[in-house]
Write a structure and sequence with these properties.
By secondary structure, the chain is α/β, with parallel strands linked by helices. The protein is built from 30 helices and 15 strands. The chain has two domains: 375 residues, no CATH class; 272 residues, SGNH hydrolase (Rossmann fold), CATH 3.40.50.
């Protein structure tokens, strides 16, 4: 959402002021704030952003159209000067404050990312940064950015890089042909050229990549274009019959509220679903002039809502950084606590509105000299961006974790197979032959050193990620990497999702020490199973296609001598929806059973690695935040061992030829799972082992495989 360029609240009769639109702003920001405070309050409150898009499209286009009517031209300098002085000073203050909040309250592991988030937000490309992270499986479990809400501002500003230029082109075309009057038809055609492809793409991308579709501007521009179309049609909308306008306005308000109360996080959005709140907001605006006091203005035009509407931009800017900082400091907030933080955000919002927004907006010198406003905007952007670029250097440089590079170096130099490569710290080796209840694996508050450093833990991943062998959710082509002894007589394949990929470091070490050839087949969020599964509430088609091709590969000429697999817990997909609950668990277990039995029947010996415990806590971030109180990062073993491991046990029942290897006693030895064992950080996020700890498990995995193979 943005601060509009419309007239400010005051005398309702003042030209250009729409009390209903000011109230719509209050409604929209209220929905967003309640949703962020606790989704249970308004499960679809995120549609408030869509309401803002329509409002912004209407108001900004209205100003441009009015300028065209009055002068026959558009001053791009004046337009961008107005945008700069209205948006950038307040945004710059919040960007700077977000860096301060990060320094004071957020774990150090998040400092570097926050610095780059400030840069992306200051340059109004935060939506594209978030879109990239939405398809990055490695970023899935990380806490949200303190500046995540800047994505919507970025969408609007990207739209306004394009839209005024199109209007400028239409004005120039009309001028050269000597035409008088506003070419509304041409303007609507320009809008249609933006809106229709954007809507079509929104529907398509939401079906294929909903996470990415939510943030990219190409799926959202149609919503701003709808508002722009209303501005162009303004004179005609004012002629609507009063009864029609009244019904239309109230129906629009009802549509927005229905969307806010019935949509939820699982709703495929934007896509088709965004039509309801977008057209609802458009209906309120379209009906406003003709409906008069009988329309929604009777509710939306009330003074309390107008006051909140006037503060909406500052409220939107401030509420999210305060919520993120509060959650980082106090832990997860309930709805009541979330509401309390939102109320606290009113204080800096009022101060920013009064001492930053209004003085800059009303400054006579900036109005008379647009170039000054542009320069001011450049300063308000440049200073936070520079601070964001420098901020990551506040985090001490941490060397990249060594185990993967060591494995790669050994493989590339073709060293003779021999001794098992050991990690840079003992890790699971301190647990001895009987790890269960071993005191060396119990949680403690402090350790002398942690490897990898928590600040580098995100990069402590299997080599399949850096080498492009681990497929993302969009791809279905089977891709593999080969490790160990490439011309070996014995080939081991590992297949599955990221929970299978996390065992690659241990398998690489074993391949080198035993003279095996190791081939990897892994894909994000995709288990090795002959069963359709869901991803983000829809059929994960690329996973189904990948599995079909992979099964053919594994049972064909490239058949391995041993298949190792593991995986996370997934919901099967049936007909038009996911299968949840006990029925879904049973269906997944049956699918895994069928898949593994099929491999054995095709002559491919198969071993299942029981899935690792799920801390359901970002362990690396927690250790970064509490280096002197590591016990705060320990989780109950009973809770961590539920889920996918139980399903795997059920799936191997009756499969005498498919052994299940369980190394979880060496990952969570005591009744509480320790975040650091033997000086090694166990998890890099909420459920994936660090490559270093996985490597320390290689001797145990090797012993278990030796028992099976011999």
């Amino acid at each position: 959402m943005t601060r509009s360029d419309s007239a400010r609240p005051g005398d309702p009769g003042r030209t250009g002021f729409r009390a209903d639109i000011e109230g719509m702003r209050a409604l929209a920001v209220g929905l967003v704030l309640l949703f962020h405070a606790g989704p249970v309050l308004v499960p679809g409150g995120f549609v408030g952003v869509d309401v803002f898009f329509v409002i912004s499209g209407f108001l900004i286009t209205g100003l441009l159209v009015a300028e065209l009517e009055a002068t026959g031209r558009i001053s791009l300098l004046d337009f961008y000067a107005r945008r700069a002085k209205r948006l950038l000073p307040a945004a710059g203050v919040v960007l700077a404050a977000s860096l301060v909040l990060t320094y004071l309250l957020l774990p150090r592991i998040r400092w570097a990312d926050t610095g780059w988030d400030v840069v992306a937000s200051g340059l109004y490309v935060m939506n594209w940064r978030l879109a990239g992270q939405a398809v990055d499986y490695l970023a899935e479990d990380q806490a949200p950015s303190i500046l995540q809400h800047f994505w919507s501002l970025a969408v609007e500003e990207q739209f306004y890089l394009v839209w005024p230029l199109l209007l400028f082109g239409v004005a120039l075309w009309a001028h050269r042909r000597g035409r008088t009057g506003l070419p509304r038809g041409r303007l609507l055609l320009c809008l249609a050229l933006v809106a229709l492809p954007s809507l079509a793409w929104s529907i398509r991308l939401t079906d294929d990549e909903p996470g990415r579709a939510y943030f990219v501007s190409t799926t959202r521009m149609w919503e701003l274009a709808v508002g722009g179309g209303l501005a162009i049609l303004g004179p005609y909308l004012g002629r609507l019959p009063r009864s029609v306008a009244v019904g239309l306005g109230w129906a629009g308000l009802a549509a927005v509220l229905v969307a806010a109360t019935t949509f939820e996080s699982g709703t495929r959005f934007p896509g088709h679903a965004a039509l309801l709140p977008t057209l609802g907001a458009a209906a309120i605006i379209a009906a406003g002039a003709a409906a008069g006091r009988a329309g929604p203005v009777a509710l939306l035009g009330r003074r309390p809502l107008r006051v909140i509407g006037a503060l909406s931009y500052s409220l939107y800017l401030w509420h999210w950084p305060l919520l993120v900082a509060a959650r980082a400091h106090f832990g997860e907030l309930g709805p009541a606590a979330g509401l309390a933080v939102v109320l606290v955000a009113v204080v800096p919002a009022v101060l920013t509105h009064r001492y930053v927004e209004n003085p800059v907006r009303r400054a006579r010198g900036l109005r008379l000299r647009p170039a000054r406003a542009i320069r001011l905007g450049a300063v308000c952007t440049g200073v936070p961006v520079l601070a964001g670029l420098l901020f990551p250097y506040a985090v001490p440089s941490v060397p990249a974790p060594p185990p993967n590079s060591a494995l790669t170096r050994l493989a590339e130099t073709a060293d003779a197979p021999g001794a098992l490569l050991t990690p840079p710290a003992p890790g699971a080796a301190v647990l001895g032959d009987l790890p269960r209840d071993n005191p060396a694996g119990a949680p403690v508050d402090r350790v002398d050193a942690v490897t990898p450093d928590p600040l580098a833990a995100r990069d402590d991943t299997p080599t399949v990620y850096a080498e492009g062998c681990h497929l993302d959710a969009r791809k279905s082509t089977v891709r593999s990497c080969v490790y160990g002894v490439r011309d070996a007589d014995f080939t081991v394949a590992v297949a599955g999702d990221s929970h299978a990929a996390q065992w690659v470091p241990a398998l690489q070490a074993l391949a080198l020490s035993r003279g095996w050839r190791l081939v990897t087949y892994t894909k994000s969020g995709c288990p090795f199973v002959d069963l359709p599964v869901e991803l983000d509430g829809q059929h994960y088609r690329s996973c189904t296609e990948w599995n079909t091709t992979l099964r053919a590969t594994l049972t064909g000429p490239q058949r391995p001598d041993l298949l190792v697999t593991s995986g996370w817990l997934y919901q099967p997909w049936r007909d038009d929806g996911p299968v949840a609950g006990p029925e879904g668990v049973a269906a997944l277990a049956d699918g895994l059973h069928r898949t593994w039995a099929g491999m054995v029947a095709a002559g491919v010996p198969t071993v299942v690695l029981r899935d690792t415990p799920h801390p359901d806590l970002d362990v690396a971030e927690c250790v970064s935040a509490h280096p002197e109180r590591l016990t705060r990062c320990a989780v109950p073993r009973s809770a961590a061992l539920t889920g996918s491991g139980v399903v795997q046990e059920r799936a191997v029942a009756g499969l005498a030829d498919v052994p299940l290897i369980d190394l979880n006693d060496a990952i969570c030895p005591t009744d509480r799972c320790a975040p650091v064992i033997g000086g090694v950080l166990v998890y890099r996020d909420a459920d994936h082992l660090t490559a270093t700890y996985a490597l320390s498990l290689a001797p145990r995995l090797g012993a278990a495989l030796d028992n099976i193979l011999h």
